[in-house]
Structure of DUF2293 domain-containing protein:
Amino acid sequence: MSALPRNRREAIAEALARLAPRLPGFEAEAALERALSSPGLRGAIPETAAWLALVAYARHVFTEYDSLLDDGYDRDSARHFVLDDLNAVLSEWGCRRTVSDDPEAEEEAAP
């Protein structure tokens, strides 16, 4: 059994490693920084902060999400159109969890 994390950064980093065991180091650091700097994630438990930051990072960096927004699509539509690409990236990183168009289905799939 491993020791408890000493601080929030370490706790989120450990959560990222559990959620995405094949996440490259550079990507892990970027997702970690996103989790730590996001005002909306400050009060979230480390596992939740890690997941939400990981998904947001992958969506913005590895899909056409931002281009779709620039083309005038609303957030929900843009998220729908990049869903398969987003889940493919998460799968490459070893995530067992996926993102869904159905928020209730996603909550049920949470670890």
Residues 106-111 have pLDDT under 50 and may be disordered. The helical segments are 8-19, 25-37, 46-62, 65-70, 75-92, 103-109. Residues 8-109 form one domain.
